[in-house]
Write a structure and sequence with these properties.
InterPro entries: Kinesin-like_fam, Kinesin_motor_CS, Kinesin_motor_dom, Kinesin_motor_dom_sf, P-loop_NTPase
Subcellular location: Cytoplasm, Cytoskeleton
Order of helices and strands: EEHEEEEHEHHEEEEEHHEEHHEHEH
Number of helices: 10
Main location: cytoplasm
Bound molecules: adenosine-5'-diphosphate, magnesium ion
Shape: globular
Structural class: alpha/beta
Protein name: Kinesin-like protein
Helix content: 25-40%
Keywords: ATP-binding, Coiled coil, Cytoplasm, Cytoskeleton, Microtubule, Motor protein, Nucleotide-binding
Mean pLDDT: 87
Largest sheet: 9 strands, mixed
Distance between the termini: 28 Å
Length: 364
């Protein structure tokens, strides 16, 4: 199957509203969002309504988010489709909580654990069920800070330079990034914890860098099926915790810090431009500025390309955050207009083997 005859599947959007946090309650904040029962719809203030693929109100548990919105993507992964989950929203809206970006194995199966540890558990459960297949699993974990790609799984002092290359067959590739092969769920969780702690160190050293950086945890799943194991697929799952989307004026940054903020948020600004270009029907074959930032280059396949993609748009219900919440709701609304064309990703080596085998059987 080629990209031309692939089915068009739009980017799906899940809106997630966290509960009011103690600070907001102490300040006397009220909720400015109303949730329409049994409809994926939210109303801001008294009039503006927005509809998404899924809406999770403040009472929704992590398990519900996982089983409703994430599980279908995992089924696709095992069929050979790429998938991406992007958490978007202002700082403090629940992106890291939703993605599980502070997970430690001490939390084990606590109901509050987020997407990534749940994904890891499910992947290994599914793998166990498929005794007729051979699996090869690998993970990488990176952070984009100030337009630099940092390898969160590399402990060496002199880290190799990381560059982005585009392979005509396999899509975007990151050269120089650690890709760790893993055979068990605890081993993969170990990689998540290692990377999470590398992020936290960054945040104390660079003043809350973690909320100003983008983190991408990637799981690569290679699957060999069939009696002679030539039927192979390779799929990738990107789990992305984006930088806080708040407007600069709110952080009262000036001078160097403002400059830093602009460069850090370049990724988000470009992401917005890419989403606009892809979602605007009137600009059908318009140029899409993927190359304007590292973030959009890395997500090129996830937006308007070969991937099943879900955006989790995170918001605070507090009236004091209403302006940012409306910005997020609008951004998420535009993302729904992006049309992707996911295809089953056959391992190019296995495809070549199959072709040769067929040739041989024809000649004898
Ligand atoms: P972000 O990563 O978007 O900056 P966090 O994920 O760190 O935000 O969340 C901010 C605070 O809100 C944290 O204390 C977190 O535990 C809490 N929180 C976020 N989402 C929820 C939720 N759905 N239920 C309960 N607490 C939440
Ligand atoms: Mg965060």
């Amino acid at each position: 199957m080629t990209n031309e005859d692939a089915k068009v599947i739009p980017v799906r959007v899940a809106l997630r509203c966290r509960p009011l946090v103690p600070k907001e309650i102490n300040e006397g904040c009220q909720s400015c969002l109303t949730f329409v029962p049994n409809e994926p719809q939210v109303i801001v203030g008294t009039e503006k309504a927005f509809t998404y693929d899924y809406v999770f109100d403040p009472t929704s548990e992590q398990e519900e988010v996982f089983s409703t919105a994430i599980s279908p993507l995992l089924n696709g992964i095992f069929k050979g489709y790429h998938a991406t989950v992007l958490a978007y929203g202002q700082t403090g809206s629940g992106k890291t909580y939703s993605m599980g970006g502070t997970y430690t194995s001490a939390q084990e199966n606590d109901p509050s654990v987020g997407v990534i540890p749940r994904v890891i558990r499910r992947i290994f459960e599914e793998k166990e069920k498929r005794a007729d297949s051979e699996f090869c699993l690998a993970v990488s974990y990176l952070e984009i800070y100030n337009e630099d790609i940092l390898d969160l799984l590399s402990s060496s002092k002199d880290k190799p330079a990381i560059s982005i290359r585009e392979d005509p067959k396999e899509g975007i590739k990151i050269v120089g990034l650690t890709e760790r092969q893993v055979v068990s769920a605890p081993e993969m969780v170990g990689c998540l914890e290692l990377g999470n702690s590398a992020r936290t160190v960054g945040s104390t050293a660079m003043n809350a860098a973690s909320s100003r950086s983008h983190a991408i945890f990637t799981i690569t799943l290679e699957q060999r099926r069939g009696s002679d194991k030539v039927d192979s697929v390779v799929s990738k799952l990107h789990l992305v915790d984006l930088a806080g989307s708040e407007r600069q004026k709110k952080t009262k940054a000036e001078g160097d810090r403002l400059k830093e903020g602009i460069s850090i948020n370049r990724g988000l600004l470009c992401l917005g431009n890419v989403i606009s270009a892809l979602g605007d029907e009137s600009k059908k074959n318009a140029f899409v500025p993927y190359r304007d930032s590292k973030l959009t280059r890395l997500l090129q396949d996830s937006l308007g390309g070969n991937s099943h993609t879900l955006m989790i748009a995170c918001v605070s219900p507090a009236d004091s955050n209403m302006e940012e919440t409306i910005n997020t709701l609008r951004y998420a609304d535009r993302a729904r207009k992006i049309k992707n064309k996911p295809i089953v990703n056959v391992d190019p080596r296995a495809a070549e083997m199959n072709r040769l085998k067929q040739q041989v059987s024809k000649t004898i």
